[in-house]
Write a structure and sequence with these properties.
It is a single chain. It is built from eleven helices and no strands. It is mainly alpha-helical. Helix 5 crosses helix 9. It starts with a helix and ends in a 9-residue tail after the last helix.
Length: 325
């Protein structure tokens, strides 16, 4: 009885520590994005690069100085055979992990094509106000908005799952499945919003006879919904993927969690570049000549279609692989 209470108490302490670490991580990420928006966006490329180099150097020095406070765990003594058996268990996760790739394609587009969409859009706040760089909305402000939304959604969903499903581990796993599925739906919504923006852009180009290099009379805030929806998707599906891999493997295999999560996202980034190559007919010399609406429509259809497969696999199979710690 005492051993069970001690184990539960240790688990609660670990959950609290993990929650605090997650909050600090999200706060630091948002602070970095805010500083980039508030200060670096008004600098030229040379100064921005120098400031970024200094900040990264200072961050690494601070990280190194705190090495004595980091938690060290004794390495577990495991045989090669036991590690092989653990690796085989991970193979069971591959089929469900493949359903995460459409989301990772959207996540990759958020760092590439979403930026391309901002070209030629009106970023000014009010033409009658002369405040230089402070009278415009840089694309980095939308990333700050996305990061803020993602952090709030991630922290809130973690809290709600632990609060309302903390008594049953099976229910927590099911809630994690639902979380990822809803995140994929929001990535579909982000693609749909990006598609509508391109439909609007092409309509104005045809109606006004805008040439390739001319600006389009559209505010950059048209892009805000797709960034916000992608932020929700990242907070749900992105964070949910980490929890998915961690919760379904023994503690001794937690070192696989980061490479598995980043591997799925990396596959999405690679396939994003490959898919752009496949649809070269949709990509012109400028954004006004391109048909990004077709690409975003393809991503939207792919994401909404994979939800059906994801639901089938998540409820058909038992993905709880935590057999031993």
């Amino acid at each position: 009885m005492d051993n069970n209470q001690s184990s539960v108490g240790q688990q609660i302490s670990e959950d609290i520590a993990e929650g605090c670490a997650n909050i600090w991580y999200k706060a630091a990420a948002f602070l970095g994005m805010f500083i980039s928006w508030a200060f670096a966006s008004s600098l030229n490329w040379n100064h921005a690069f120098m400031v970024t180099f200094i900040v990264v150097t200072v961050a690494y020095l601070l990280f190194y100085c705190g090495r004595s406070y980091y938690k060290r765990e004794d390495p577990t003594t495991e045989t090669a055979a036991s590690r092989m058996m653990q690796a085989k268990r991970l193979l069971k996760l591959i089929s469900l992990s493949l359903t995460f790739i459409p989301y990772s394609l959207v996540e990759a587009s958020g760092n590439t094509l979403f930026i391309v969409q901002s070209y030629g859009l009106d970023s000014s706040i009010n033409p009658r106000i002369t405040l230089g760089s402070f009278n415009r909305i840089p694309i980095t402000s939308l990333y700050v908005f996305q990061t803020l939304i993602s952090s709030i959604v991630s922290i809130s969903s973690n809290f709600l799952i632990r609060k309302f499903w903390s008594s049953e581990e099976t229910m927590q796993h099911r809630a994690g499945f639902v979380r990822i599925g809803i995140g994929i739906l929001f990535s579909f919504g982000s693609c749909l919003s990006a598609w509508l923006v391109e439909i609007r852009r092409l309509k104005l180009i045809n109606e006004l006879g805008i040439t390739d290099d001319e600006a389009v009379p559209m505010k950059i805030l048209w892009l805000a919904p797709q960034f916000g929806l992608l932020g929700i998707a990242n907070g749900l599906a992105g964070e949910g993927m980490w929890n998915f891999f961690r919760d379904r493997v023994p503690r001794s295999m937690w070192f696989f969690v980061f490479p598995l999560t980043q591997g799925v996202l990396g596959i999405g980034r690679f396939l994003s570049a490959f898919s752009i190559w496949l649809v070269q007919d949709w990509i012109g010399d400028s954004v006004n000549e391109s048909h990004l609406d077709k690409y975003f429509r393809m991503l939207a259809i792919l994401n909404i279609s994979v939800v059906v497969v994801y639901i089938f696999l998540s409820y058909r199979c038992d993905w709880n692989l935590r057999e031993a710690t």
